[in-house]
Write a structure and sequence with these properties.
single chain, mainly alpha
Amino acid sequence: MTQGAAAAATKQPRAQHGGPERAGGDPVSLYGTGRREGCIAAAGVAAFALVAHLLAAAQAGGRDLRAASAALADGAPSALAGVLMYRCLRAHGRSRYAAFLGGAGYALAPWLQAIAALPREQWAAALAPLALEVAHRCHRPDQRRTFLPWAPLLLAAPFVVGPAWLPLLTAGVALVHLAIAARAGDLGERLGLVRRFATAVAMATAVAVAAWCIDAAGPWLAATGTLRPAAVLAAHRTTTAGTDLPALLRLAGPVLLMFAALGVLRRQRHAKLRIWLPVAALGVVPTLLKAGGVLPGHGRWLDLAVVGWWLPLLAVTVLGAAGLDDFLDQPQRRRNALPWLWSSAALGGPLLPLVASAPDREWPLVAAVLLLALLLPFWRRIGILRFKNTLTTAALLTLLVPALQVLPVVGSNTRAVAAAAVATAAGAAPAGEVDLAATPPANVWRRQYWALASRPLWHYSAFALAGAVAAAGALSAARRNSKAKNTPSKAKAAITKKAKPSARS
């Protein structure tokens, strides 16, 4: 074998994985290396979420421009949630490919669509990855200087929606991340980190309290009904007949669950199970307390039982993206994981309709479990790059179908509750004669503008202080980075003079 043939044979496996070594670059942006590819992938997640809402609106019979605009407005929280979760997974060290599928799975998770009757919680779930991202980036010393000045604003971002439970859960998870980051280094470094993190948390608390007191999003994020955990988990049915195993599996969707199960079977290295499994279990506690009669079954405590399921969704999303990355990094490690996954899916998948309250609605769940379990072992035969493209298509389809089951049911329930509320306010008008556009949006905008403008300036002091500190810290970090990167001209001349002629540039 010649030297050129040996070099080509050596580079072939790396090119097969779709890396930047391939001549001419890769046309698929998920496998690129630049910021442009990352922006395209994030835009793809948002576009996929909006397309799902448009298809759901068309499925429900709304094919005009007004229905399309309403569907885009309803899909805005999902699109934002997918983009920010993509960024959060990238901050956790996930590849662009795994972050894309993880962000899409989070954006179209049935739980996130089912809580549309609680707009505050839905928007808080969309903004929650911002706080988790900045808390995780503070783990790394090379990113800590850049993101720590913005920590107060990003940690307080979920609180902008006003009084809700999910911002409190997000703050708890973010504080755990910051506490873990503060344990690194020697005693002096730990004390310095604790002092800076405490300052950031104090400023974030001030911004969060100011956001809750001002409640700028109040008129647009009013709850349209009361939700129960069983109704959220079984939102794909027209009638709620209790919670069953398929409803629990639909919480995060079959795609993320299969990837998370693959990572658990392979004992994945990218995410710590001892952290995320307790987080998932903690989210079920409010529902168990409500079922046991410890928590009241009405009002804000009922919302806590519904919102608590966000913690299992978050844990499954992180573990699913980590499990997919672990498999794509070393597919041949722990080969017995794929046979175990396939056998479990083949035996348990067809049994899911037998334990379901609505068996005719569970075929997408069974098909997704069997399809993904059957597709994973074929990575060697079709090549890793074709396997990624095939897996992307299969994953997006298996994400889209359950969402199309949930969205029309949630939309019809929300419209019915809103029509009843308008009818009650108008003097019990007939439901068929209610005009949902009776109150022009311009009046709401005008009233909210004057309500915010009439507040004293000190109400906005927390936002102004946090923004000024963040801007000053970011500017200082940027100056330090530029000084560290710029080599003095005299040093450059000395290096060039001492270098060999062949090494000079």
